[in-house]
Design a protein that fits this description.
The chain is α+β, with helices and mostly antiparallel strands and about 130 residues long. It has one domain: Cation efflux protein, cytoplasmic domain (Alpha-Beta Plaits). Helix content is about 40%, strand content about 35%. Strands 3, 4, 5 and 6 form a 4-stranded mixed beta sheet that branches. Helix 3 links the parallel strand 5 and strand 6. It is elongated and about 50 Å long. About 5% of the residues have low confidence.
Length: about 130
């Protein structure tokens, strides 16, 4: 487990990479149009056997002494403009990490893994039944 270490006159502060991953995952999932995060097959298996927290699913970070690079693997809701959703994810994740950890985010790469049709299909079926 890698940690970001900050020293001051009172002692040291250590932030685990997993903390940065959770911050990024939560920030990304709050963006309208993001249906969810997409993990790798290995990550999904690790989650199923309890070795990975769901909040960091679909997020990889590289943390240096004062900088971080983030890769996010997301699923977008059908009907949303993918470039706009990806840009909002980049902005929100960068802002969240920088404000909560003090790290400078140098890269926020968004990988669109899938489009979620399921929710939209349910809504249209519901509208059809109501009419």
């Amino acid at each position: 487990m890698d940690n970001l270490s900050l020293k001051n006159t009172l002692g040291a502060i250590r932030i685990a990479d997993e903390v940065v991953e959770v911050i990024a995952g939560l920030a990304a999932s709050e963006v309208e149009g993001v249906a969810g995060m997409s993990g790798s097959i290995v990550g999904d298996i690790a989650h199923m056997i309890g070795r990975q927290k769901n909040l960091a699913k679909g997020v990889k970070v590289e943390v240096g002494e004062q900088e971080a690079a983030v890769d996010l693997y997301i699923i977008v809701e059908y009907g949303y403009a993918i470039p706009q959703v990806a840009l909002r994810v980049q902005e929100k994740v960068k802002e969240a990490i920088e404000s909560m950890t003090g790290l400078n985010v140098v890269e926020t790469n968004v990988h669109i893994q899938n489009v979620n049709f399921h929710t939209n299909t349910e809504n249209k079926e519901e509208e059809t039944r109501v009419k």
